[in-house]
Predict the 3D structure of the following.
Amino acid sequence: MSAQNVIAFVNKVNGDRSLQTRVAGLADGIGSLVQFAAESGFTFTADEWNAVVEASAETLSEDDLGQVSGGLVPAVQIPSFTGGVFLRFR
């Protein structure tokens, strides 16, 4: 559930310029981002944030791809953290 909160928070901020401005004005450090997210209704920990950011950066090797069989893609898509206001919180 918390990973979903991270993703929902990122998607919400990415779609709202006023929230982007507020995130850009936060003090450095993941604590300020986690607190702001909680105040905005998205509860997650710094560890959960870091896990989602790390998962978004992972890619599958050829061996990994060879192990994949058919199936459904999860309905929740992990957003990109490679730019924008979230870059400094990686």
